[in-house]
Design a protein that fits this description.
mainly beta; Leucine-rich repeat, LRR (right-handed beta-alpha superhelix); 2 domains; nine-stranded mixed sheet; two-stranded antiparallel ribbon; globular
Length: 223
């Protein structure tokens, strides 16, 4: 397999750029556009988006056929407003990181097909478009880490308890004002991060926290 490097012609001289200086193309039309970023040794695909503004849905279909064991997908810093629904074809995906998708407002319902997903990370910077987790999120029963920043919804549904393997719940910099009662049934929870949320400023927060601690004694909070 070729190493993930890129040749740049500068004044007629070819210069090899290391991985950290590479950027995904502005438009991803086929698997060939992302092939330089694939690492077979850990079955990962990490795309530094930067100027990425279009991804053809066929790309995930091609990936599922050629790299069926892909376990890690990270796409960062992009102006894309949605992730193709064909992501649901990546059924062996265990880690999905969408960092700084400025225009992303939700995820496709097909993420429910990612039954092996253990870590879902969605970071939104300030001044990004509001982001809401879809109902399909609560079907990801293998999920161990749900990490979000900049979540627009002010409450989570009782169905969050379907994530019975969840250990880490990060909701920092979100609009969360309440936590569902069913969260006390999530006995594997180890850590809840609610920093910079309206929730921790409510008078009822201490009661909410105590109730959860009484049901999950080993849990810790970051507030």
């Amino acid at each position: 397999m070729k190493k993930s490097v890129m040749l740049l012609s500068l004044f007629g001289i070819q210069v090899v750029l290391p991985m950290f200086m590479m950027y995904a193309p502005k438009k991803i039309l086929s698997i060939d556009d992302v092939r330089p970023f694939y690492k077979a040794e850990d079955e990962s695909l990490i795309l530094p988006g930067d100027h990425l503004d279009y991804m053809d849905p066929i790309v995930f279909e091609q990936i599922s056929n050629e790299w069926p064991s892909l376990s890690k997908l990270q796409i960062s810093d992009t102006s894309l407003s949605e992730i193709p629904a064909t992501i649901g074809l990546l059924r062996n995906l265990k880690y999905l990181n969408l960092h700084d998708w400025r225009n992303l407002t939700t995820l496709p319902s097909t993420i429910a097909n990612l039954t092996n997903l253990k870590k879902l990370r969605i970071y939104k910077r300030r001044f990004s478009k509001p982001f809401i987790l879809p109902e399909a999120t609560w079907q990801l029963s293998s999920l161990e880490e749900l990490i979000t920043s900049g979540l627009a919804q002010d409450k989570l549904p009782e169905e969050i308890a379907n994530l019975h393997n969840l250990k880490h719940l990060i909701l920092e910099n979100s609009q969360i004002k309440s936590l569902p009662e069913s969260i006390s049934d999530m006995k594997k929870l180890e850590w809840i991060n609610v920093r910079n949320t309206p929730l921790v400023r409510l008078k009822s927060w201490s009661v909410i926290r105590s109730t959860i601690e009484n049901n999950i004694p080993e849990i810790s909070f970051d507030e």
